[in-house]
Amino acid sequence: MSFDLNFIGILIGAIMASSVPLILAASGELITERSGVLNLGVEGMMIIGAISGFALMVITDNLFLAVIGSMLSGLIISIIFGLLTQSLLTNHVATGLALTIFGIGMSAMIGKNFVGIPGKEFPLLFINLKENVPFLGPILFGHSIILYFAFLLPFLTNYFLKKTKIGLIIRAVGDSPTSASNQGINVTLVRYSCILYGGAMCGLAGAYLSLIYTPQWIENMTGGRGWIALALVVFATWSPIKVLIGALIFGGITILQLHMQAVGLRIPVQLLSALPYIMTIIVLVVISRDSRKIKLNTPTSLGQIFYKEK
Amino acid sequence: MEVQLIKIEKRNDVSRSIYFLTPVLAIFLTLFGGGIIFFILGFNPIEALKFFFITPISDLYGLSELLVKATPLCLIAIGLSFCFKSNNWNIGAEGQLIFGGIVGGGVALLFYNHDGFYVLPIIILSGAIGGMLFAMIPAILKTYFNTNEILVSLMLVYVAKLLLDYLVVGPWSNPEGFNFPETRQFSESAKMPILFDGLRIHAGIFITLITVFLSWLILYKTYLGFQIKVSGLSLKTAKYAGFKGKTMIIIVFMISGACAGLAGVGEITGPIGQLHRNISPDYGFTAIIVAFLGRLNPVGIIFASLIVALTYLGAETAQIFLQVPKYTGQVFQGMILFFLLGSDYLLFFKIKFLGLKKNEL
Questions:
Q1: What are the residues facing B351 on neighbouring strands?
Q2: For residue B270, which of B92, B94, B64 has the smallest C-alpha distance?
Q3: pLDDT of B361 strictly over 50
Q4: What is the least distance, in Å, from the CA of B203 to any CA of chain A?
C-alpha cells in the first residue's frame, strides 16, 4: 500500500511541475489584463524566454544569469507591445498576435545553433527529504526554486491586487481608465509597467521549460502553452488563486495523457488535450451570460485603447 | 522653462492616400528590419534578402508556388475583412479552415471510390458549410451569451486541431497506411484540376477570385455591406439606425467561416490530396496579417496575400540556401504587422514641428 501512495505522490509532484509554466505565464498575464491590456503575445514572449534562458546557460554556464536573462528578454520583447499599444495606440489583439508570430520566428532564428546541445542539471532542493518521506516527499520536496516561487506567486498576486495601493490603482485603471486618469493616475505608465511585468513572467515561464522541465532547446517548444495560459486567465475569471487551481487541473490533464495507458483509460488523448479549451469556453459562457457577473470579474476596459487628449 | 518642440494633434479626417501608402511603408521598413536581423546573424543582408524575396519567384515554378500559397491566404483574409470591418474579432480562422477541411475531407473519403463531375463540387460545398458552422459557434455565443468572440474563436482553433489529429490517427486513418497519421489519398475526381502540367497551381484560385469579386459586390453595392461598414465605424449609429446587430454578427461570421472552410477544402483537394495532421501552415493566423495589410479592401487583400505568400516561399528558399529555420518567415510576418500597425499612428495623428519661437527663449 505504501508503494501505491508513493506513486500517487510522484504523480502529484509531476502534475505540479507541469503546471509551473502555466502559473507563471498566467499570473503575469493576469496583471497585464487587470490593467485593461489584452496581450495575446504570451506564447511569443514565453518562447523568447525559453531560447534566451537556454542560450545564456550555454554561453555563460551560469544558471542564475540564464534565469534572470530570460526574464529580461521577455520584458524587452514586451516593450515592443507596450510601445505599439500604449504609445502608438495600436489594436491590442492584432499587436499581440504579431508578437506571438514574431517571437516564434525570432526564437527559431536565435536557437538555430543551440539545437541538440544537452541542458545542464538544475539544482533541486531537499532531495534527501523527497526520497525519505513517503507520499508527501515527492509532493513537497525535490523541486527547483522556480516551482516554489510559482506556487507562492498566485497568493502574492492576490495580496498585491487586493491589499496594496498599487494593486488598487492597477484595478482602477483596468476598470475605468478615464476616471483613473481624472484622479491624476498616469494610465499609460501603469499599463506599461503591467505589460513589462507580464513579459518578464512569461520569459520566466519559458525558461522553466528550457532549463528545468525539458532541459534542451527545441523549435516551438512551448507548444501552445502560452495559449493555454491565456485561456487559464479567463477560466480563473481573473482571480489569482483560481489561476493556481486551474493550472493544476490543466497540468493534471497533461500528466494524465502521459499515464493513460498505465491507468487503463480508454478516452482518446486528443479529447483530454482539448478539455482545457472546451472548459474555458464553458466558463466564459457561464460568466458572460449574466452581465452583473461579468462586470464583477472582467476588467471592464480589457483590450480597449485609451487616449488622453493633451 | 519647458519648451514644446513637437505637438501631436488628432486628425479630423483620414487621408485616403496615406491610408493606402502606409502598407507600402510598412513593407519597406520590414525589409530594412529584416536586413538588420540578417546582418546581426552574420549574413550579407542584401544577399540574404535576395534569397528570401527574389530567388523564390525567379522562375515559373516559383511563381506558381506563390499563387498556390496566396490562394488560401487571400480567401481567408477576404472573409475576415467582413468580420473586422464590422468590429467582430474573429481570430479563429485557422480553426474554421481545419474544420472545413475535416468536413470536406470526410465527404471526399466517402467518395474515395466514386468518379464523377459532381464529386468535387459536393466536397467544396461541404467544406464551406463546415467552416461556416464552426464560425457560428463564437458568433452565437457572442450574440446570445455575450461572450468574448476573440477568446472563443481562439480556443476553438485548438479544438479543431485536436479533432483533426484524432481523426487521422484513429477512425479515418488509411487502412493500408501502416499506421501513418494520414487518410487515404482522395480519388482523382475529388481533386482540384491542375491548371498547368508540372506546376501545382490549381483551380482553387478561381474560387478565390470569384469570392473576391462577390465580396466587393456585397461590401460596396449592397445594404448589408453598408450596415457592416456603419457598425464598424460606430456601433451607436448602427443601433440608432435600427440595424439588426445580432443578425449581422452571425452573417459576418458565417461569411468569414465559409471562406476559411473553402480555403481548407482547397488545400486538401489541391496541393495535399488527403487529410493529415498539418493541413495548414497557420494560414488562418497569417491571413489576419493579410487582411490588415490589404486594409480590409478586396483589391488591397489580393496584393497583400501575394506579399505575405512570398514570406512563406522565402523562408523555404532561405532554409535551403542560408540554413536558417523555416520559422524565419514568421519574423517577417510579425514585423510587417508591427510596422503597419505602428505607422497607422500617422493616419490618426499629425505631428507638428513647432520650432523655437523668439519670445519663448
A1: B8
A2: B64
A3: no
A4: 30
Distances (CA, A) of A193 to A86, A309, B32, B218: 11, 21, 30, 44
The answer to whether B325 contacts A108, with C-beta atoms less than 8 Å apart, is yes
Which residues in chain A have Cβ-Cβ distances shorter than 8 Å to B348?
89
pLDDT at A116: 86
3-class SS of residue B351:
strand
**Alpha helix ranges (H) inside A176-239:** 177-182, 187-207, 225-235
| Inter-chain CB proximity B163 and A220 less than 8 Å | no
Asked if A102 lies within 8 A of B335 by C-beta distance, the reply is: yes
The model carries a pTM of 0.90
Domain presence at residue B12: no
Q: Which ipTM value was assigned to this complex?
A: 0.89
What CATH number should be reported for the domain holding residue B180? Answer: 1.10.3470.10
Flag whether B288 is in a domain.
yes
What is the extent of the structural domain holding B71?
A: 56-309
pLDDT of residue B30: 94
Q: Which of A95, A277, A303 sits opposite B155 (nearest CB)?
A: A277
In angstroms, the CA B259 to CA A18 distance is: 38
CA distance A99 to B57: 28
CB B351 within 8 A of CB B11: no
Q: Is B9 helix (H, G, I), strand (E, B) or coil?
A: strand
CATH of domain A2-297: 1.10.3470
In a domain, B347, yes or no: no
- CA–CA distance, A111 with A87 (Å, rounded to integer): 31
Domain count, chain B: 1
Do A208 and A148 contact (CB within 8 A), yes or no?
no
The Cα A173–Cα A181 span in angstroms is 8
Question: How large is the angle between the packed helices B298-321 and B45-53, nearest 10 degrees?
Answer: 120
Nearest to B68 by CA among B257, B232, B233, B313: B313
Q: Please name the member of B154, B170, B288 whose beta carbon is closest to the beta carbon of A227.
A: B154
Residue in chain B closest to A274 (alpha carbons) equals B159
Q: Along the 310 residues of chain A, how does pLDDT read in single tens digits?
A: 445 777 888 888 889 999 999 999 999 999 999 999 999 999 999 999 999 999 999 999 899 999 999 999 999 999 999 999 999 989 899 999 999 999 999 999 999 889 888 888 888 887 777 777 777 777 788 888 999 999 999 999 999 999 999 999 999 999 999 999 999 999 999 999 999 999 999 999 999 999 999 999 998 899 889 998 998 998 898 999 999 999 999 888 878 877 776 666 677 888 888 888 898 899 888 888 777 766 677 788 888 888 776 5
Identify the pLDDT of residue A69: 96
List helix spans (H) across chain B: 16-40, 45-53, 60-85, 93-110, 119-145, 149-169, 204-221, 223-233, 235-240, 245-267, 283-293, 298-321, 328-343, 345-348
CB contact under 8 A, A108 and B328: yes
In the predicted model, is pLDDT for residue B360 greater than 50? no
Residue A167, C-beta contacts closer than 8 angstroms, at least 6 positions apart:
A159, A160, A161
Chain B residue with CA closest to A282: the answer is B152
Q: Flag if B331 and A234 touch (Cβ within 8 Å).
A: no
Domain ranges, ordered by start, for chain A: 2-297
